Amino acid sequence: MKVVQYFKDSFVEFKDHVTWPSFSDLQRDTIIVAIATVLLAIFLYAVDTLFTQVLNFIYGAF
User: What is the distance between the alpha carbons of residues 43 and 24, in angstroms, rounded to a whole number?
Assistant: First the structure.
């Protein structure tokens, strides 16, 4: 069956040909992504607050 062979080939590919990161690399990359996410959230909050203030100034408080 082609499906069974596909899964066998996929397993071999993951086991033998994929270079997995070390645990320390994984930790470092996770910390980088977490910090970037927090910084992006702070930036979006600031932009949203600024736009809210500008629109309230232009159109008056709702």
Answer: 29
